[in-house]
Design brief:
With 136 residues, this protein is of the alpha+beta class. It has a single domain, classed as Fusion Protein Consisting Of Minor Coat Protein, Glycine Rich Linker, Tola, And A His Tag, Chain: A, Domain 2 (2-Layer Sandwich). 26% of the residues lie in helices and 35% in strands. The protein is built from 4 helices and 9 strands, in the order αβαβαββαβββββ. Strands 1, 3, 4, 8 and 9 form a 5-stranded mixed sheet that branches. It has a two-stranded antiparallel ribbon with strand order 2-5. The longest helix is centred in the first third of the chain and has 14 residues. It starts with 6 loop residues before the first helix and ends in a 10-residue tail after the last strand. 15% of the residues are buried. About 4% of the residues have low confidence.
């Protein structure tokens, strides 16, 4: 009669070897952490139509950053559509240092929040939603 191996023993031996080869497709990084890795920032233009209509507020974007630090995809999560187009156009030009996980560059998923404010009749765009424009 053949010797039987308990299923639990076989499972414990096979599973770690299988999972050791799986590499995540990307990692999520908090906005404040990824901001420190940014190498290039193109300032978003404050749309003239938004200034004339006194449109202001936050624009939140979902951003995918490649293993080389290039912005690959930008999608609007929330915010006024009048402001969103300039935010997306600018963020697509940003560049980051590669984010490493165990020594390997990873694709990063993060959010970027831009704060469009009016100050002295002009528009100011900040990329820290909790910071405000200096008062003149």
């Amino acid at each position: 009669m053949p010797q039987r191996t308990p299923l639990g023993v076989m499972f414990c031996v096979l599973v770690p070897a299988t999972f050791a080869q799986i590499r995540p497709a990307g990692i999520r990084v908090r906005e404040d952490v990824i901001r420190a890795l940014r190498e290039k920032r193109v300032d978003p233009a404050y749309p003239q139509a938004a200034l004339k209509a006194s449109v202001h507020g936050l624009v939140e974007l979902q951003v995918k950053i490649s293993q080389t630090g290039e912005v690959q995809n930008v999608q609007l999560v929330s915010g006024d559509p009048v402001l969103a187009s300039s935010a997306i156009e600018a963020v697509k030009q940003w560049h980051y240092k590669p984010d490493l996980l165990n020594g390997a560059a990873m694709t990063v998923f993060t959010k970027v929040t831009l704060n469009y404010e009016r100050s002295s009749g002009e528009g100011v765009v900040l990329d820290d939603p909790f910071r405000t424009a200096p008062a003149n």
